[in-house]
């Protein structure tokens, strides 16, 4: 697989009045197409800030994030090449569950062509019975799966997901990661931020973060060729 993203000596600082918070300090990282990488660490370790830098939502104070498409800047990525699942989920309350999943297709003008993909994602994430409900008529776990389906519907080259299974039981978490694994198997890069160290069973690489730095990087437990066999951990 080839490198998709290079993070070169990135530092990000936030200022809160007189307080200076070093969210990221001198981060170096390469991410490949076809891999699932997990950013793991406690709250405040820099995981979400790094995701936002990868997405182009934030910019580095020093260093740079270079994506090997779209001229190199994630903020300039063509529509549908990058998808983000934020912790806030960001669902449109005035749209039904199905309409939320369809929204990227509608904005890209591919609603008819993508209808079968919407149906497949809703079935595999146990959302079919909720199709005509509005987000506020569903549980937080259901809303989270809607946000995942919306992010996957265009099969992006880069998927960034912040705690995408934090409100899921084991079987539904496995369903989410089965879909992420299929996306990676088609060549996309998938980056997941989480507090959950057990997520190693689903990913190719675990990147431990602490105090805005990469503390350790190691191989995950998932074999790329065996993703279709994933299931929930034994009880």
Instruction: Indicate the structural class.
Output: alpha/beta
What is the number of helical segments per DSSP (H or I, 4+ residues)? 5
From N to C, what is the helix and strand string? EEEHEEHHHEHEEE
Low-confidence stretches: 227-235
Main β-sheet, spatial strand arrangement = 5-6-7-3-8-9
Percent strand = 25-35%
- Distance from first to last alpha carbon: 35 Å
CA-based gyration radius: 17 Å
The quaternary organization reads as single chain
The description of the largest β-sheet is: 6 strands, mixed
Number of strands: 9
Helix amount, in percent?
A: 25-40%
Summed over residues and divided by their number, the pLDDT gives a mean of: 89
Basic shape = globular
Textual characterization of the structure:
With 235 residues, the chain is an alpha/beta fold. The protein has five helices and nine strands. The protein has helices spanning 47-55, 97-108, 115-124, 140-152, 170-185; strands at residues 3-16, 19-32, 36-40, 62-67, 82-85, 158-162, 189-194, 205-210, 213-219. A six-stranded mixed beta sheet has the order 5-6-7-3-8-9, sandwiched between helices. Strands 2-1-4 form a three-stranded antiparallel beta sheet. Helix 5 (170-185) links the parallel strand 6 and strand 7. Helix 2 packs parallel to helix 4. Residues 227-235 have low confidence and may be disordered.
């Amino acid at each position: 697989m080839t490198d998709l993203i290079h993070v070169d000596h990135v530092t990000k600082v936030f200022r809160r009045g007189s307080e200076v918070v070093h969210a990221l300090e001198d981060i170096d990282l390469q991410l490949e197409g076809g891999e699932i990488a997990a950013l793991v660490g406690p709250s405040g370790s820099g995981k979400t800030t790094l995701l936002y830098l990868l997405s182009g939502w934030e910019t580095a104070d020093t260093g740079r994030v270079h994506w090997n498409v779209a001229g190199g800047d994630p903020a300039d990525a063509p529509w549908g090449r990058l998808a983000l699942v934020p912790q806030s989920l960001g669902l449109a309350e005035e749209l039904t569950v199905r309409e939320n999943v369809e929204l990227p297709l509608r904005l890209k003008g591919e609603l008819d062509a993508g209808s079968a993909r919407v149906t497949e994602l809703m079935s595999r994430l146990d959302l079919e019975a909720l199709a005509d409900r509005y987000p506020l008529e569903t549980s937080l776990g259901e809303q989270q799966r809607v946000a995942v389906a919306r992010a996957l519907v265009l099969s992006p080259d880069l998927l960034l997901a912040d705690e995408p299974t934090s409100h899921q039981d084991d079987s539904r978490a496995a369903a989410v990661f089965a879909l992420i694994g299929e996306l990676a198997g088609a060549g996309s890069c998938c980056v997941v931020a989480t507090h959950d160290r057990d997520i190693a069973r689903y990913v190719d690489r675990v990147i431990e973060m602490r105090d805005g730095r990469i503390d350790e990087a190691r191989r995950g437990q998932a074999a790329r060729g065996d993703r279709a066999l994933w299931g929930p951990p034994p009880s």
